[in-house]
Amino acid sequence: MPPSAPGFHPVPPSGADPVGDAPSTGARLADAPPRLADIVPAPVAVRPDPGADYRITADTVIRTSPHPDARAVGHQLADLLQPAIGYPLPVVEAESTGFGGITLLLDQAPTAEVAGATEADATTEAEAEAGAEADEGYRLVVSGDGVLIRAGSAAGLFYGVQTLRQLLAAAIECTEPQPGPWSVPGGVIEDAPRFGYRGAMLDVARHYFGVPEVFRFIDHIARYKINHLHLHLTDDQGWRIAIDAWPRLAEIGGATEVDGGPGGYYTAAQYRRIVSYAAERHITVVPEIDLPGHTNAALTAYGELAPAGVAPPPYTGTDVGFSSVAVDRESTYTFLAEVLAEVAALTPGPYLHIGGDEAFTLGPAEYAVFMERLQPLVAATGKTVVGWHQLAAVGHSPGRVIQYWGTGTADAGVAEAVRQGAKVLLSPGNRTYLDMKYTPATPLGKDWAGLIEVSTAYGWDPGSYLEGVPAEAVLGVEAPLWTETVTSVAEIEYMTFPRLPAIAELGWSAESARDWPDFRHRLAGQGARWDTAGITYHRSPEIPWQPRPTPAQVPG
Ligand code: TNX
Asked: Does any ligand 1 atom lie closer than 6 A to the CB of residue 450?
């Protein structure tokens, strides 16, 4: 282990973090080819065949099923590989007899096999079902002749491609041509997720992040088979999505952010671009309009929504819990129905998140009356309600999802909501909150939920974490990044890596695969990829990172 170094400095532009910079003993070289088992998140089954490595060369062809979705994944793979390998790989239609090169087949074959493998590994039947139901599994076979990825869905093929990417040397992350060789370790991987919902949340309200920055975040989470992006679109400090019927929400409510920056908002067209960029990476956007609290920005735009009927001043601090829309005025519900209808119409995914947290100005009865009127407004848009777990206290709405963000392992309200049929999305504040500091010396972030080093983020089982919430009631896990203290892409990345891959593994891999000593070694291998890709991360002293190349060794 490297010594724990003092002297943290603010997030450096180069991605360096002085704490972990000391070379760790026994680390594998950064340019050593990965082993078949070096994948994050851990697959269901890995069977290496050391004699069967495949080498990508200028003659390699990507063959895909004729289905346009398979062809699209083929082109995504070609685009990922081209910059570093230096030549384009042609994408052609797979012929039934042809093999060799990299083949992506969209068919039913792997689902049954992988589901079988999951069953053997899973601790409960529900886990096996969660994997099989989602149909996101794939099978990857590497032999001397080529690589074959088979899946029952385009998402499965896409995940197979993410795995293949991790099987190539870290230099594959270079944007300039590298010499290679581009070897893929031989053997078979069978894989399928444990949970259907694997999420990350980005708070674009406290600090606004533009479309390119959100795209970059999407790219990052897609590597680890995250399939939901929750966008926290509104809060006291900013309203980030244009609503036709209520234009001042974005124009006035969007013009502020924490510490007085310029803010910003997404037009409908920009939001659609985010949704489709995510969808191409098999990620569903979950929009959140936080209600009834966390609404100061909306109130500055339309004073008639405020309890006093007058617009408050804009707010650029970081307190919570002081704002609310007027819950006893009929016009508030007309407003809400119109806003939710527009957001729902822009969003193809099934979920609409209505917040519900920290409405401290309301009494419990007022809160319940409001939320019980709000839930049917969501249902009227055809979407499923998602809310922070304070929502558990109010009447059930069919299929609703309760997002748990507490720091304990028992919550009577959540357990009762589950008895009434709610599903639970687990975001325990002291495990998954990406805005918590790693150590007291972390230059960014908060600590109200605790300090979260990688082992803490990784050290829990979502299937048995909350009392009264059995694995079959768990929809999945989500890692939220609140951005009161986070202002740039480098800072987003620093707080996200390396903790997000830990949460991604809890969401994807079977509980029987959760193994800290193994995980920390697999995670170490990701560091060289992030270094090469220019992704900033915390060089956690818990992880045996490979030494960084000295400048003379840096390729290109
Ligand atoms: C609590 S988590 C909040 C957010 C803050 C966050 C900061 C939740 C539902 N509410 O409003 O940004 O803490 O860590």
From this structure: no
The finding on whether 404 has its CB within 6 A of some atom of ligand 1 is: no
Closest by CA to 388, choosing from 364, 369, 370, 371, is: 371
The CA angle 71-75-78, to the nearest 5 degrees, is 140
Q: Of 298, 304, 309, which Cα lies nearest the Cα of 251? A: 298
Residue whose Cα lies nearest atom 8 of ligand 1: it is 357
Phi, psi dihedral angles at 528 (to 5 degrees): -65, -30
- DSSP letter at 466 equals S
Please confirm, yes or no, whether 358 is among the known catalytic residues: yes
Per-residue pLDDT reduced to its tens digit, 231-278 = 999 999 999 999 999 999 999 999 999 999 999 999 999 999 999 999
Give the lowest-confidence range in 36-50, 66-80, 540-554: 540-554
CB burial class (10 A; 0-12, 13-18, 19+) of residue 373?
middle
In this structure, what token pair is assigned to residue 190? 């069978």
Protein residue whose Cα sits closest to atom 4 of ligand 1: 482
pLDDT at residue 108 in the model? 65
Task: Inform me whether the pLDDT recorded for 116 exceeds 70.
Answer: no
DSSP letters for 290-309: EESSS-HHHHHH-GGGSTTS
Cα 437 to ligand 1 centroid, rounded to whole Å: 14
- Distance CA(483)–CA(500), nearest Å, equals 15
Angle at 535 between CA 190 and CA 448, to 5 degrees: 90
Q: Is 100 left (phi over 0), alpha (psi -120 to 50) or beta?
A: left
- CA–chain centroid gap for 441, Å, is 26
